[in-house]
Protein 1
Amino acid sequence: MWSGWCLVAITAAGARAASFASWVGSRPDAPPFDAPGERYTPADALFGQIELAAAQHPGVVTAEAIGHSVSGRPIWAFHVADPGVKPDRSLVVVANLHALEWIGAEVATALLLEAIALPPRGVALTVVPIANPDGRARSEADLRAGNNLYRRANDRGADLNRDWAVHRDAVAVWRHLLPRRFAATERPLSQPETRALDALFARNRYDYAVSLHAFGGFFYHPWSGAWERPADWAAFVREGRAMETAQGGHAYRTRELSRWGFFFRAQGSEIDHLYGTYGTHSWLIELTRSGLSFAKPGEWRTYLRWYNPQDPAAHVARGMAALHALLLAPPVFLRSDPSQRHSPH
Ligand SMILES: [Zn+2]
């Protein structure tokens, strides 16, 4: 009986892995980009790297299509665990929720490739390298066509960073002053991309979550849509300091997102949803301090460059250093009762 169940589980995992491999195999070749994206890896090539690593380290990673985008592209999640060790804590890393923020996908994929080669001990790690595959595909097509277009949303024009269920309602002053950019979408979880991610979060109740964005150089913790401090404020500060220490000199700075300043309150964000609904210690990391350079004023109108520095390598290393600190952090859910942390809505 037990062996039968095991066989079913192994077969199901094998089928999922096979479906990712065949999906990768079905994708057209992705030639390198020209400037300004010449140091960035096309999405299909990122997935090709993941498939190669998975094939070289069988049994370490499971690929799962957690859902599909508005235009039918799969949203891939990769689950990594050390086969010999029972995990006692968990981390999910989500990237590229905003179309042009490719640097996040570079960081997430680098972490995933490292974890496949050397699984982090005791940690169940999930990585979603490209959470907005339609936006990513459109911005890649723009670059190949030589078009400089500002893109942020999914294929229905929804901002996936404002489509979540917690702290959706702006206080009156914000709604009137900043009606478009800072408001939530019309309904919570109105998009297939956010519903797929929410189902993943609900199923696994991660200790930690990171949503990789750009730019700014900040470690933002909840709340993003309310002024009060979260119940776990002291723990958030500790975790933020650990990430700062891991980055060393000129580290990103830790902030509660809503307290950052006048312009940066965000209603219906993924970090408030993760913390408010599931108790997950969630972080929104604004990678890089922008790709713009005073030495290159000619690039100031290039939207891709706002978010993605010309050479991503140093920024990938900094992002990974911060994520390593969270991989070493103690399990959240052994520390306190999750029901004590909820104070949302
Ligand atoms: Zn963003």
Note: Residues 1-14, 335-345 have pLDDT under 50 and may be disordered.
Protein 2
Amino acid sequence: MSAEIVSNPTSLTGDLDHKLDRSVVEQIVRQLVSNNGTMDPIAAQQSTQLSTADGLTPYHNGQPDLIVNVSARHIHLSDRDVEILFGPGHTLTPMKWLYQDGYYAAEETLMVVGPRKRMLPNVRVLGPTRSASQMELAYTDAVQLGLDIPVRHSGDIAGTPGRVLVGPAGVVHLDEGVIRAARHVHMNTADLSYYGVEDGEMMDLRIESPACSMILEDLKVRADDAVKLEVHIDTDEGNACNLAAASGFELMKKQPCACQNH
Ligand SMILES: [Zn+2]
């Protein structure tokens, strides 16, 4: 899945658990329940999607199920930070399973404090834990928090801003790790073959949506044989195309520019 984890999402070597970790991330937390207890419409849509038992992308008539999900603002935590924030011996409690097998939105949320007393009161934690904590926000989240944060792929956090995370049992000062997660698509080997692309390549996604159709460019392919085909975009991108009302998606290998200037 997405790799939001720390470091090198491209390697297909190493032990499976570690790979899963890295790839994790990005998932969708749209499933978040908002402050007033109502469900985000995007989350509601997502909740209808089912996972397969074997972790592979479902194919029908030779075509893969192309799942496009919003990855709402969320936090990845290390085991150490979970214990600091929620108490000694605490482990995350799955609240909602995500499309990728083994990944979940946890019951736990954190308050994130920004400059000049700005804050986000309850940012969802995603599990499982990782080797390093990281927070992924949409641009509008960053504005609300008063931060200027870079667009990065998960795990690529060197030089990014940090922030203060406040939990019921303690506080963690992240020195770095607050990013806007760059759009991307998770693929396994069969999916790579279907689209004729390689790990790290860029693709375009056309979204058919009433009065809001659009093409998102520069989706990075993140290959991992433990994942199912899934595009992750952020809340701003999902809102721009009214993803909840989208009627179709087309994922395309990026074409060279036809003009004479590139
Ligand atoms: Zn992802």
Note: The first helix runs from residue 16 to 23.
